[in-house]
Amino acid sequence: MAHWVGCTALLVVLVAPINMALGIHMFLKDSVLEVFIAVSVVLFFFFSRQVRYRTDALAIALIATMTWGVISVIWSTNPDYSVVRLLHWVAAGAVAGAALQLQQQRDRFVVLRYLFASGCFVAVLGMMQHLGGFDAIAQAKPPAATFANRNMAMHIIVVSWWLGPLLMILDQGGWRHRLWQYIYSVGAALMLAFATYTETRAALVAIGIQSVLLASYFLITKIRGVWIPEAGNISRRALAVGVLVLILFTNIGSGGFDPVWTKDVNLTQLADPIEDETGYERLVFWGSTLDIIRDHSIPGVGLGAFE
Fold first, then answer.
1. Is residue 39 part of a domain?
2. For residues 187 and 113, what is the distance between their CA atoms, to the nearest angstrom?
3. Which residues 6+ apart lie within 8 Å of 197 measured at CB?
4. What is the DSSP string of 98-150?
5. 176-224 tens-digit pLDDT
6. Does 302 map to a domain?
7. Which pTM was predicted?
8. Domain range holding 243?
9. Fewer CB within 10 Å, N side or C side of the chain?
10. Bridge-partner residues for 149, per DSSP?
């Protein structure tokens, strides 16, 4: 079960777009994932002798959200979009349901390692595209690994990079502990370096907030005297190697030495439609969203129908 849940993350990043001209780079990923998950769930329930049903707050929230999404198709202003989005929800719900079945800590670590490996794959492939000119996979806004658009590639980086420092603390892998320490440290460093290559403002802001939250959590637990005992087993050498890798790659560009402080990432451009056309589009989208909320406050417009 743990390996199946983890494989869904790898499948997301390994399925590459076939034809950028048709604009199907995400459709292909969605279709492959939905077929894979649907078949896997059927096989799981067919062969499983025992399925654990959970009634905690998280499970109830997921079930309630899924139920509301299904019902909203009835009054949707765009049923076609709602059905497509519902298929995505079903696939995600199946993975969430399977993850909730994992009771053993070692199984959860297996899933986290798969997710972390997926982020590392995206980062390494994206860095090859940026630094080495690897162009075997079609790109709309490079470097984007297999996602065609670098903004989409950063989704999985934001989700997985912080697992590096977290697993360095929590994952005590026996005799292989020291090796995993280096893998977690270097992997997280590569993902952060890749984030600087994409110059994606939203991702950089998200990473900054995550860093502050992680640091605050560790600081608070230490002050309160409930510091995680495993934290003392972190390899300082592995941590130092990760920092050096991050410093090295954030200061290298496609043309050679490219100091990170010279990169043009203006987080304030979002509010200036003259400087940033996509920023203006976002402001229009947000304004339309507020109108939808005002006009359809309680039932909404149906799952995915906002498009």
1. no
2. 11
3. 126, 127, 130, 143, 253
4. HHHT--SHHHHHHHHHHHHHHHHHHHHHHHHHHHH---SS--SBSS-TTSSBH
5. 677 888 999 999 999 999 999 988 888 999 999 999 998 888 788 777 7
6. no
7. 0.77
8. 105-265
9. C
10. 141
